[in-house]
Structures are given as structure tokens and as C-alpha cells.
Specification:
2 copies of one chain form a homodimer. Chain A is α/β, with parallel strands linked by helices. Chain A has 19 helices and 15 strands.
Chain lengths: 542, 542
């Protein structure tokens, strides 16, 4: 059945016409804030500042049930084939990111699930041995793009306060040569490992970066192989043990944006944080996985309820973006990871059921930076702009590091939290000032995810919250959240423009097929901007 | 006159109904790409992949003329009072960011403009002397929020390749104590300067950070004053020479988000890059200012035409966001600055003319990260999602740093550019594949800003492009782009929640006024999440 055919979709469309007005005198009460909250593990979700009431929540719960989300989550975690689109040639793969981190080896799972778990344990044991010998290395350059680094970078920054040494990670995540050359200007190659991370083992950007780095190690007269490790799909074109100090494996059931808990994240993150912190992080993920699987009441299932609030704001209040704003400097890279997780998973237009084009909106644009920084940047627009932006705030009762102080009667952590709460209140209540320039319409929805402190367990749990939020959202929208055909066209066209650049260096090459004609027009423009800096006349003089 | 009353707005609404379809066979030609391009200085704007034609461009030009943009730009650069809203109590200030950087001391300007320029020159001379004595310092911690650091941070990262020493900037831009404590874990206080940057000299966050840092210097038994400098409004509460090694001034005609070229940016950026690079940067700004002022043809005026394309996409094609995506790793912080510049300036709902509520959309949500990184993150949604996202791409013919290499026939810079061009083509042309899962609707608009290399002059020029883009947009929408009343409500409410936190430490304090009741409900939630980590029973045992 399609999204628009669910009875509750119809009901929710009606309810949206009379959605609660948070600015109504007395509506946003102390009692409402306390009542509208659910918890799991370390996390508490406060949604009293969303434009929902009991009736709407009930209808959203019905929507989840109509969409059969529990059965689908069960299939996902049991590693049934969930990455498919009927009537279309598609990837037809299992999805295994929850299976590998399953801590319960006695659970009744499918053979695939048990095998995935065991294979991952084997790799983790290899990693433990490797790390015990890798202590001479101080830095690691990660060569990877998209899912091969975004989550790792987010976790690295989020947990830096827990590092006991000063090992560093660098991310060569862009084909832009300035990125890798800036890294090379900073590191000491002698004590630096390079981790090539590529599931397919065939990406041109990765191969270019690798070749460039291998050249540098050779120029520095170092034994190149002793500095290169690899994370790849078993049997990929890169899977050549003679080229690497060690190779760690992943399998095709791990999608890039869901790969943080696989060897993609484990190799760099256990390098800087050690295995103990890594295991804590995995525990946080696993326990949220179990909660997502076993909590059948949509109003108590944290990621499911999060997804339902997202769908309410996107499909019924018709808000085109979602800002995710952690009030925690350490989470500075979180929304970059979530942009991929949300938008690559659910920025889709095709029904999984039959390959037809869907008739409703899917992923909003995900954006945001950390608070309080955003307050002095884009909050003007969020408060008084003509559009509305729903927000997921994330906050912590305690800071990660020592060294806070009481200044003018409060700690800075308290000031930080006061700002977070004040924003949720201000957005909801507004201020119907008589001076129109100081008028705040209010009635702008948000919710708050709250925990005590951002530690490895709590972060793992949050990551799984967002992963399952996305999965549930996809289940309800009826789309395939696990492929990414939308990145292919750009890749194909990029290769054809690369061929045009290549052609310029080859005598007699005149390959100007119609398909690439536009590429030639753009390349001609490059010459024009170069000539501004290097006028033809000057060149002649030089 | 209001936006909706302009004749050309009516015409553009009609034209939008039959806006060009870029996927039409043969429409997106080589010839079109070449023809639809304008240049100024080092920059070239390619807009063949926008959904415009000659007729639409003509109507957009008419709109600019109807809105009287040239007269307004003239007033702005001549420092007339432009920060006002009629019929509302508002800031009533002049706007002087172009005046201070005016390189032409003989131009016929108002007395205010000449004075602003001279005052700035005086400060720059002070800075030159200061820097010549500050060479023993290796790092600078900038204590500032919003406009006091965002632009500086963006320029710092953009120009790092031009540094000749290894001086570093750190940004204590968040009241989150984890941010400043992470910085303190890295720097050597002995060789570190602290620059407090606050125009008003009265922001609580800044005072808290300053006090915390002064305590640390005192604990380290250093002469505190010798490490603290200040940038502030003359006569602000912080303007106490006895507290600082040096004080640099700014005036109330410099708004935070337009302050990069004032002492706000000059002090930290000349510290790391030297005065010569700073002067080059200012030259780039000034020449774009002059172009914005003197080029009366909207189709040839780079920032004005950029603004018109933005208005076309926002108000007539009705697209709610704008992604700004530089294909340059060094510009990683650019969109964070632009979020403030665009959204704080033009996220408004009130007509400057009479203080009435406007009836059209204003600033879109600004977002984006650097390419190619975004390609493997959110481009899926941009290509195949249900919403459309117009894009401003930014690219450079040459890389900043040495060390690129030819790999498989092309340099990595060429691969980077190939990706940029390919994305613009892919978004516009699409691919009407028979497999619906591989179907790209196309017809998604973008344009490209192209220059030879990201150097100080070119970056200054780009910054002024974006500043004037925003000003022109505001002129046409008829709003005041220079105040930020929308951040006030959150500030006021934050202070009332801070008072509640404070109250907890004061015996007998029971101040629970109605206004802050919601704050108490949220503070109660903090206790709940803390108890998960520290159950009451455990506490008793400890």
C-alpha cells in the first residue's frame, strides 16, 4: 500500500488544518513539557514544543502500524533483503549494520545474521592485534569519501575529550589536491599510517589519492607498504595483501552511510581511542538497536517516534527543511554526517513496492551547526523569517571536559543549557510585540534530545537513534533507504569531462562527442579566467 | 512601493509559469553556456544552467530598476542612514563597511564616509606597529560570537596556503565550556594572545569566556594584561586601556556580519598573514564595491545579477533553500559565514518602507559544504529528491598549493573541476531513464562562479560579491538587511533561564515567576537525565 492510501494519512491531513497553536495563552504549560517526554537508556526526548497533541500522536502511531514498521524493522535486523525496488533493476542486498554489532550471540537470528556477527568479531580481533603493534604511529590519514569518513569524522570530534594520548586523524576526503597537500604539510610521514577505505575498491578519487600518497612515501625513502592499511570488500580490486601492512574486510551488506560501526569506523577510531572506548560505543549502538526492534508502542519507541515527528512536520505541516542543532561543540561534525544519513537514504522519489513515482514529499534538507554558534548566525531567519524551520535540538546536562567555572552565579554549561531551553521556548511562544520589527510569530516547532553527558555509550546510542529514525521514515514513506542511484549520473558525466581534460594532453586527440560538448564549453571558460591572471601579452614577455 | 506592486513582479510571475525547461532536446547547448556568462575582475559567473532566458533576464533587470537599487547602493556606500524601519523604533544607523575599505581617498564622498575611512586607516597603522612587536606570539585565541568570528574563520581557512609561518588562530566562539577547554589543552599560554572581540562590550558569553581565560593566565603566573587585546566600539563598557595590551576600535556603523574587513577581521588575520596579504584582500573588496556601485546595467553587475537569480529561484520558482558549494577544500567554512550574512540580513518579514508585514518570501535557508565532499553525502537528494535545491557552485582553475600530480592522464585539480561541471550538467539535463530508480528529472537550476585561483585579492572580491548580493536582495525585497531584532527574544529568555540556574545556588531563592515557569520544567528534565548516570542509590553509597 502507498503512503497516500493509508487511512491515517487522510486523518493527519485533516488534523493538520487545526494543528495546535503553541502561542495560545496557557497552551505551552509546565505540565505539558513534563508530560510530553519519552526516554530510553541515557536519552530523553522532550516534544512539548512540537505542534502535536494526543490525537495527532495517536494518528501518527496508527500510521506507523499501517505501514507495518515493526515487521520491516524485524526483517532489517534479521538481514532479509531490504535494499530493493520492485520492477526495477536494483541492488537487491541485505542490510547488515545492526547484525555486526549485535552483542547477544545467543539470540535467534538467521544464519546470515550470525555469520555477519562472527565475521565482524574476527575482524575486531585482527584489529586488536594490529593496534597493539601500531603504537609507534602517531597519526592516521584516512583516504575515503562519503560514508567512508563522514561518520568517523563526526565520532572522532565528538569523543576527542576521551583520548588518553595525542594520536590524530586526518581526512583526505576530497579529490581537491589542496586537501591532501595541506595534510602532508602537517604530518610526519615516518609516524603516519594511511588507511585506504573503499568498499568497492574501484573509486577513481580514492585511487588517485592513494597513488599520490604512495609517491610521497617513496620520495621520503620510507618502506611504502609498512604505512598503508586497507578497509575494503573481500575480493575487491584493491584486495592485494602484498600492497598493505594489513587488510580489514567489510561485506556488501554494509552501506557507506551505515558503516560507522563496521571496520570503516573501527579501524581509525580504535586507533585513536583504543578498543575499550570502541566497545562502549558499540554497546550504545546495540542497545538502541534492541530498543528499536522490541519496543512496539510507537509512542515509546524513541527513533520511531522521532521519525513520526519528522513526518508530521514534513508531510503535514509541509516544512521543507530540518535543522539539527546540538548544543555541544564536540558535535560540530554531526550534522554533516546526518546530511548523508538522512538525505542519501531518503532523498528518493520511487516507491519500493512497485517502482512507480511517489506522490508525496520525502527527505527534507538537513542542515545546522552547533549552538550557541548558530544563534548569532541564522537564528534571525528561524525566528523572524518568512519560512518555518523545525529543529531537533540535542543537549547535555554536563560538559565533557574539566575546567568549567561559576561566573556571575552560573557555570558556562548552565548558560549553554539556558540558551538551548530559551530557544525552544522562544520559537514556540513567540512575542506578539506591537513593534512589528520586534514581532515574533512563534508557533515554530522543535523538540529536544537530552542526555547527561556525551560519552562513547551515549554517542553510540544517539547514532543508532538517527540510523533507525531514517529507516523508520523510509518504511513509512515506502521507499528504499539503502541505495543511492542518484549519485551515478554525476559520476558518469564527471568521467566524460575527465576524458576531455585527458584529451588536451594527447596529441591528435579530438574526441568531442555530443554527450560531452557541454564539458568543452565549461573547459573553455577555465581558459578565460586563467587569462585574467596571466594575460597573453605577459606570457609572451616571460 | 512594495515588492508585489512592481510591474515586473507581475510579469515574472507570468514568466515563471512557462520557465525554460533545461531538459528540452538541444536547449542546453554549448553556445548557451558561452553566451550566458558575465565577468568582473577575476570572477566569471556562468548561468547557462539556470532556468532563465533573455526575456526573464530583462524582466529581472526591470525589477532591479523599479526597486531603485542603484540609488540605494549609492546611499549605502555614501553612508546615509540605511539601517532603519519606518514607523518602528529601530537602530537608525549608517552602514559603513564599504566606506572603511575605500582605497580612493580623493573620491567625492560624504563627510561621514571620509571620516570612517580615516578612522580605519588610523587603526590599521596602530595594528602595523602592534604586529611588529607581537612576533613572539605564536597563537591567538579569538573570543567572539557570530559576526565577531565567522567571517574571520572563513578567511583564515581559505587563505592558510598563503601563510609563511605557522601562527595559529583558535576561535572561542561558543559559551560551551568544552570549546575553550579543548583550546586550552592545545595552546601554550606563554606565546598566546587573546583577542576579545565585542562591539557592544556587554555580551554575557564574551565576559564569561574572558573571565575564565584571565583566571587561567593568572594561574599560570603570567602577566595577564600582556596577553589580552581588545576590538570594541569606542567607549564601550570594555574600553578600559588598563586591562589590555592594546585596544582597536570599530564604530556603530559596522554590523557584525559585515565586519570582516574592519578591525574585527584585520587584527587576527593580519596577525597570521601579515599586512601585505591583508591589503591585497582589502583591494579585492574595494574593487568589487566600486563595481557594485558603478555598473548600472543589472545584467553586467555581478552581485546584482547574482541577487536577481536568487530572487528568481526564491520568489518565482518558489524554491525554499539555496546551497552554496565551493569546489575548494579551503572554503570549508565559507557557507557558515554566508549563513549568517544571508539569513541574518534577509530573514525578515517587515517592510522597511512602513513597518508593515510583507507578503512575499525573503531569505531562503542557506546551506552546503565543499565539493566533492557533498557529492557523496546529500547529492542523492539534490538529484532524485522530491524537492529542488538551486545551487551556487564556486570553482577555481588552479589549486592553491604545490604538489598536484598527473594520475591516469589528469591532475586532481582537473578531476575536481570535471566533477563540478558534471554536476551542473547532470542537474540541468537529468536522465529520463526507463528504470524509474535511475530516473533523473533534471531541470534543476544552478550557476557557477569561476576564478583562476583562490588568492587574497580574489577572496576579498568574492566576499564583497556576497555582501552586495545580500544588500541588493534586501533592496529589492524592501526590507532592512542591517538589523537583527530576531535574536533578541532568545537572549532575553536565556537570561531568565540563567536566573533560574543561579537561583538554585542561592539559599532561600524561590523566584519562580510565570514568565520563567517553562524554564523550570526543562531544568527538572536535566535532573532526570543526570539520575540515569548517577542513580540516587549509588550516590548514597558513595
Amino acid at each position: 500500500m502507498k503512503f497516500q492510501d493509508y487511512k491515517s494519512v487522510n486523518e493527519l491531513q485533516e488534523l493538520a488544518k487545526t494543528a495546535p497553536n503553541l502561542t495560545k495563552q496557557g497552551y505551552l504549560s509546565d505540565e505539558r513539557i513534563r508530560r510530553m517526554a519519552i526516554s530510553f537508556g541515557k536519552w530523553r526526548l522532550l516534544y512539548g514544543t512540537e505542534r502535536v497533541d494526543e490525537k495527532i500522536c495517536k494518528a501518527l502511531s496508527n500510521l506507523a502500524m499501517e505501514a507495518g514498521v515493526h515487521e520491516k524493522m524485524n526483517k532489517l535486523q534479521n538481514m532479509d533483503v531490504m535494499n530493493y525496488v520492485n520492477n526495477c533493476k536494483s541492488e537487491e542486498r541485505r542490510v547488515g549494520h545492526t547484525a555486526i554489532r549485535n552483542q547477544d550471540k545467543n539470540a535467534k537470528w538467521s544464519a546470515e545474521t550470525r555469520e555477519a556477527r562472527e565475521d565482524y568479531q574476527t575482524e575486531l580481533r585482527k584489529l586488536k592485534v594490529f593496534n597493539s603493534k601500531a603504537n609507534k604511529f602517531k597519526s592516521m590519514i584516512i583516504v575515503g569519501i562519503g560514508g567512508s569518513y563522514l561518520g568517523t569524522e563526526a565520532v572522532y570530534h565528538a569523543l576527542k575529550a576521551f583520548q588518553t594520548d595525542d594520536k590524530k586523524l586526518y581526512f583526505a576526503s576530497n579529490v581537491d589536491p589542496d586537501k591532501v597537500n595541506a595534510i602532508l604539510a602537517e604530518v610526519d610521514l615516518k609516524t603516519t599510517l594511511v588507511a585506504i577505505i573503499s568498499k568497492s575498491g574501484g573509486t577513481l578519487e580514492i585511487k588517485s589519492e592513494e597513488e599520490l600518497l604512495r609517491k610521497r612515501y617513496a620520495q621520503a625513502k620510507l618502506n611504502v607498504k609498512d604505512h598503508f592499511i586497507l578497509v575494503t570488500g573481500k575480493g575487491s580490486p584493491m584486495d592485494e595483501p602484498s600492497n598493505f601492512l594489513e587488510i580489514f574486510y567489510m561485506w556488501d551488506y554494509i552501506g557507506g552511510r551505515f558503516s560507522v560501526s563496521s571496520m570503516v569506523g573501527a579501524v581509525p577510531l580504535a586507533f585513536v581511542f583504543g578498543m575499550e572506548i570502541w566497545e562502549e560505543f558499540l554497546k550504545g549502538l546495540h542497545e538502541m538497536d534492541q530498543h528499536a526492534l522490541n519496543e512496539k508502542d510507537p509512542m515509546k519507541n524513541l527513533p520511531l517516534f522521532g521519525a513520526l515527528l519528522g513526518i508530521w512536520n514534513r508531510n503535514f505541516l509541509e516544512l521543507p527543511t530540518l535543522a539539527i542543532i546540538p548544543y555541544s561543540q564536540a558535535m560540530n561534525f554531526w550534522s554533516a554526517h546526518l546530511q548523508q544519513l538522512f538525505m542519501e537514504s531518503n532523498g528518493k522519489s520511487v516507491a519500493q513496492e512497485d517502482g512507480s513515482f511517489i506522490k508525496h514529499e520525502t527527505s527534507p534538507v538537513i542542515w545546522g551547526t552547533v549552538g550557541t554558534e548558530g544563534q548569532h548566525a541564522y537564528y534571525q531567519c528561524i525566528h523572524q523569517g518568512t519560512g518555518e524551520v523545525p529543529i531537533e535540538f540535542i543537549g547535555f546536562a554536563s560538559s565533557q571536559r574539566e575546567g568549567d567555572a561559576i561566573i556571575e552565579g552560573t557555570t558556562n554549561q548552565e548558560k549553554l543549557l539556558a540558551n538551548l531551553f530559551a530557544q525552544a521556548i522562544a520559537l514556540a511562544k513567540g512575542d506578539h510585540n506591537l513593534n512589528s520589527n520586534k514581532y515574533f510569530s512563534g508557533n515554530r516547532p522543535s523538540h529536544i534530545l537530552l542526555a547527561n553527558v556525551l560519552d562513547p555509550y551515549t554517542l553510540g546510542s544517539l547514532l543508532a537513534y538517527h540510523e533507525h529514525y531514517v529507516a523508520y521514515e523510509g518504511f513509512i514513506w515506502g521507499i528504499n533507504s539503502f541505495d543511492q542511484e542518484g549519485v551515478q549520473l554525476g559520476k558518469v558525466l564527471a568521467n566524460s569531462v575527465i576524458d576531455l581534460f585527458k584529451c588536451q594532453r594527447v596529441k591528435g586527440c579530438t574526441s568531442l562527442d555530443k554527450e560531452s560538448a557541454l564539458g568543452n564549453a565549461f573547459i573553455a571558460e577555465l581558459k578565460l579566467v586563467q587569462e585574467v591572471d596571466f594575460p597573453k601579452n605577459e606570457k609572451k614577455l616571460a
